[in-house]
Design a protein that fits this description.
The protein has 331 residues and is α/β, with parallel strands linked by helices. It folds into two domains: 98 residues, Nucleotidyltransferase, domain 5 (2-Layer Sandwich); 150 residues, ATPase, nucleotide binding domain (Nucleotidyltransferase, domain 5, 2-Layer Sandwich), CATH 3.30.420. 50% of the residues lie in helices and 11% in strands. It is globular. It binds 5'-O-[(R)-(carboxyoxy)(hydroxy)phosphoryl]adenosine and zinc ion. Zinc ion binds next to helix 4. Zinc ion (ZN) binds next to helix 4.
């Protein structure tokens, strides 16, 4: 596996130009290493699956061009996968390994840095978009709050770990009230409420202390974070996290009832959130919940292969006119 977090870290977010350059640099060694670890040879491959979108177009193009070249050189079929379908299929890999079957129709929540989308996932497969964020994605809200408070990037993992030390009821954030589709999400109001909370206090010194910590050590331990994060800030983080979880789970429960879901799938980077997993286990949800393990929750190639496998069985191949699409929709 290759990670670009170190590259983007100093900028507090993903820089598109750097991302495509890193993809270009990593793609050949990563494929080689993946084959080596799997004990496989390129000659044993049945097809090449590639993400067609949505995503940063520069990065998508690197994968697309490489996949097409590989298929052309080896005479292999090409399979196009939607990134969001990949997130949904991340859970099927593990369910299969555990001998569990995901009963359909399922309600799938894809919750990441770019998406907060609720889909009905039925036999076919057939996808129907039930609700989506109207502004920030949940992961984006985590990342922006973390940046504001000097916690670096990405924000989700650190806020998740520190939230356990705060009081989730301390700051009474209000839940978003949606006009129109009640299954849509909104996180910009919460983000603004956090900003107001910060502006009403003198927090510059502690924010600077955290930035200084990050400069010394890009991966601080929980103890190191706690040493530069006073209780009121921990309470803020816990309350922010509780509100995000509430926004997500209350729509999941509503949507599951609406479609008569037989399974719930929670996937994408934010689905590795411990608070979310604990709360989902505690609530009386109407059907079994599937979470991918944390390494399959954030972006990875195995989930793309998992989504491609049924397409291979159906011989649903793409031709070389396939294009990378930044805003490719699943439904
Ligand atoms: O799915 P992903 O790896 O990439 C996208 O497709 O966006 O998701 C990345 C997002 C980031 O916003 C990151 O802050 C968030 O997932 N994330 C988390 C956690 N781990 C990653 N958010 C909340 N809690 C976590 N434990
Ligand atoms: Zn993703």
């Amino acid at each position: 596996m290759a990670s670009q977090l170190g590259t983007h870290f100093p900028y507090g977010g993903v820089v598109p130009e750097l991302a495509s350059r890193e993809h270009l640099r990593a793609i050949v060694p990563v494929v080689r290493l993946a084959l080596e670890r799997a004990g496989k040879d390129l000659g044993e491959m049945a097809a090449v699956a590639v993400t067609a979108g949505p995503g940063l177009v520069g990065s998508l193009l690197v994968g697309m061009t490489y996949a097409k070249a590989l298929c052309f050189a080896r005479g292999l079929p090409l399979i196009a996968v939607n990134h969001l379908e990949g997130h949904i299929y991340a859970v099927s890999l593990e369910a299969k390994r555990q001998g569990r079957t995901i009963e359909l129709p399922a309600l799938a929540l894809v919750v990441s840095g770019g998406h907060t989308h609720l889909f009905e996932y039925a036999e076919g497969p057939r996808y129907r978009l039930l609700g989506r964020t109207r502004d920030d994605a949940a992961g984006e809200a985590y990342d922006k709050v973390a940046k504001l408070l000097g916690f670096g990037y990405p924000g989700g993992p650190v806020i998740d770990r520190l939230a356990a030390f705060g009081d989730p009821e301390a700051v009474p954030f209000t839940l978003a009230r949606m006009k129109g589709n009640p299954l849509d999400f909104s996180f910009s109001g919460l983000k603004t409420a956090v900003l107001r909370w910060v502006q009403a206090r003198d927090m510059q010194a502690e924010i600077e202390a955290r930035k200084a910590l990050l400069k010394r050590n890009p991966k601080p331990s929980v103890e190191e974070w706690l040493a530069v994060t006073p209780k009121p800030t921990l309470d803020l983080l816990a309350s922010f996290q509780r509100t995000v979880i509430e926004e997500l789970l209350r729509r999941v429960a509503q949507a599951a009832e609406l479609i008569g879901a037989r399974s719930l799938i929670l996937s994408g980077g934010v689905a590795s959130n411990r608070g979310l997993r604990e709360e989902a286990a505690r609530r009386p949800l109407p059907c079994p919940v599937y979470f991918p393990s944390p390494e399959l929750a954030t972006d990875n190639a195995a989930m793309i292969a998992a989504a491609a496998y049924p397409k291979l069985e159906r011989k649903e191949f793409a031709d070389f006119s396939l294009k990378a699409e930044a805003n490719l929709r699943l439904a």
